[in-house]
Write a structure and sequence with these properties.
A hairpin with a 4-residue loop joins strand 7 and strand 8. The chain starts with 8 loop residues before the first helix and ends in an 11-residue tail after the last helix. A 4-stranded antiparallel sheet has the order 1-2-3-4. The chain has a 3-stranded antiparallel sheet with strand order 7-8-9. The longest helix is centred in the first third of the chain and has 27 residues. With 418 residues, the chain is an alpha+beta fold. The chain is built from 15 helices and 11 strands.
């Protein structure tokens, strides 16, 4: 018996069965595509694969090469560009990679790799070994980042290194204990990471610079507030330093800081070639155009201290720097961090509370005013800005005589600073 379409019942059942099989296969294919965890895109655009991870289950992968397998069939080899908590973020990563592809074949994959590559170039631009050591010191606090993939490092990781990074003390009463980054060191870590990820960004190793995604205005304000809280040494405290400097290592450097007005960073960077004992002055300074390479006469009270350090550096250590730390028969020059540690050790030994390395410069400025030094002389010696019509006396003989006469007025015999 035929139906309306001219098909008998047996033929109709056959066609329905065929349609059912085709429909079922299609459903199974769709289901397999959903459960496989792989979302395919156009050729060369990568794919998102779902993994067993509970934290970042979506892995974004991009093709890096086509190869022929053992059966002679072409296959695509993929490389992961990261794992993400949602498919949307993985899709965004693939889209960003498509717009600005970076070098997946680079050997620079971890923070440690990046530092090594960047520092080899950056250190060549620095003018002193002390500047190099300052960067190396900041890097030492970032050990938690060393083995992290640079493409997975975010702003939070860098902030964590700044706030919680530490080094282990290797000597002194705190040997074996953790030393966390000071505010100034935190600022240097941020600056270092800024430059490192700029380097990576220029070479398409990362998509963004996570270090520049946040500012440290609060940190800078805190540093400035701490600077305002600095207190000068009293005359009695300076006298205590004079009574103790032969017995307490590095107390002499504190005294030299008090009588020259150099910033701590400037103090540790003084090179032997810039110490003129016969002429009686030191060339040093940094930070501003007025502060760089300025002349600072050697106060007669500290002449003996400077001479002793000079002869130690040239005859015993053969060092390029005035201030050095003995290490057996060898030595190492100071960095700000090593000076900071030894400064506080001197303060602890003498039971002087509340002082920081910058207090020596503050003491110089306060005492210079108290002893009646002319404002122009104070600015020239400390590297502060001058008005445009003021003659620069730094490199003239009459300038030295003028500055020496002024700096020699500084005395702590008038009693304590109020």
């Amino acid at each position: 018996m035929n139906n309306v379409n001219g098909l008998n019942n047996i033929q109709l059942r056959s066609y329905k069965r065929a349609d059912y099989i085709i429909e079922k296969k299609s459903e199974n294919a769709v289901q397999r595509k959903k459960t496989s965890g792989v979302r395919r895109r156009g050729n060369g655009r990568g794919t998102v694969e779902r993994t067993a991870s509970k934290i970042n289950p979506y892995k974004a992968k991009v093709p890096i090469e086509v190869y022929i397998d053992k059966k002679g069939k072409p296959q695509v080899r993929y490389k992961s560009i990261g794992s993400f908590p949602t498919r949307g973020l993985a899709d965004d990563a693939l889209a960003e990679y498509s717009r600005t592809p970076y070098d997946l074949s680079s050997k620079i994959t971890t923070f440690q790799d990046l530092y090594k590559a960047w520092s080899e170039e950056y250190f060549e631009t620095l003018s002193s070994e002390s500047s190099v050591r300052t960067v190396m010191s900041a890097y030492a606090y970032c050990s938690g980042l060393y083995h992290m993939k640079i493409r997975k490092i975010g702003s939070g990781h860098i902030k964590d290194a700044m706030n919680h990074g530490y080094v282990i003390e290797t000597r002194g009463k705190n040997k074996g204990k953790r030393r966390y980054a000071s505010l100034n060191t935190q600022e240097r870590i941020k600056s270092m990471c800024n430059m490192m990820f700029d380097y990576a960004l220029e070479r398409n190793l990362v998509l963004t610079n996570p270090a520049r995604a946040f500012k440290i205005d609060r940190l800078r304000k805190e540093i400035e507030m701490n600077a305002k809280k600095k207190k000068p040494f009293k005359a009695s405290e300076v006298a205590l330093l004079w009574d103790s400097y032969k017995m307490i290592p590095f107390a002499d450097i504190v005294l030299i800081g008090i009588y020259t007005g150099f910033r701590p960073q400037e103090l540790v960077l003084i090179k032997i070639e810039n110490v003129f004992l016969d002429q009686g002055y030191i060339i040093g300074g940094m930070k501003t155009s007025n502060g760089i390479n300025r002349m600072v006469p050697i106060h007669p009270r500290i002449k003996e201290l400077v001479e002793a350090r000079y002869h130690q550096a040239t005859e015993q250590f053969h060092s390029d720097y005035l201030f050095n730390i003995p290490q057996g028969r060898s030595y190492k020059p100071f960095t700000y961090d090593t000076y900071d540690a030894r400064f506080h050790k001197v303060m602890d030994t003498l039971n002087l509370v509340g002082f920081t390395p910058h207090c020596t410069r503050h003491t110089f400025a306060t005492q210079a005013e108290l002893c009646g030094l002319r404002e122009r002389a104070i600015k020239l010696i400390m590297g502060h800005s001058l008005k445009a019509d003021v003659t620069d006396y730094r490199y003239k003989h009459t300038g030295y005589s003028y500055l020496y006469e002024e700096i020699s007025k500084i005395s702590f015999e008038k009693g304590d600073i109020e």
